[in-house]
Amino acid sequence: MKQVKLSVLKGDITKVEVDAIVNAANSSLLGGGGVDGAIHKAGGPAILEECKQIIARQGGCPTGEAVITTAGNLPAKYVIHTVGPVWQGGSKQEEELLANCYYNSLRIAGEKNLQSIAFPNISTGVYGYPKDKAAEVAVAAVKSYLQQHPSSIKEVVFVCFDDENYELYSRLLDE
Ligand code: AR6
């Protein structure tokens, strides 16, 4: 963990040059709005093609799980698609499911021997997870996973699209 760099970046995750960017997808893996729409639009049809093959093999992707595809035309090498929980007030295992998104994405990146990964603020858009709570879960989940599972990963970037998330992550990573 000591040698893993955690950082925060403000901007568009489709522009980030890392081994894998994470997509905040839905269980169908067939695309949608928000960051999912942006990734498919910028990455091109190769990503959707591979998502369809995965669906044909395993059905949809359950909440908290993750799958990996090509990144198509993006500067990243891979896209790891994970499905965040819909916020329902906090008593429906949202915290555990959101942490699972980070764990499973990091696990898949490690299995592929990747060194750098960028996460969007999963579930904090359409899925309505309160941003402050989601940021705490994200940072804690990444730190605890990396501490418990030494791997190829050397760099984790939290990519924030809006000012509020950027402030939240900047503060959490300063601590
Ligand atoms: N780069 C980085 N972050 C972004 C970008 C971008 N280009 N665009 C939006 N965000 P959301 P969710 C931020 O709604 O809440 C989709 O339709 C955004 O500001 O994309 O997990 C899927 O198909 C927010 O902070 O994902 C699902 O159906 C964060 O990304 C559903 O939305 C997540 O917002 C998933 O909802």
From TrEMBL:
Enzyme Commission code: 3.1.1.106
PROSITE patterns: MACRO
Pfam families tied to this protein: Macro (PF01661)
Domain of life: Bacteria
Enzyme class: hydrolase
Keywords from the UniProt entry: Hydrolase
Ranges where the Macro domain occurs: 1-175
One GO molecular-function entry: O-acetyl-ADP-ribose deacetylase activity
InterPro entries the record matches: Macro_dom, Macro_dom-like
Name this protein carries in UniProt: O-acetyl-ADP-ribose deacetylase
Lineage, opening ranks: Bacteria, Pseudomonadati, Bacteroidota, Cytophagia, Cytophagales
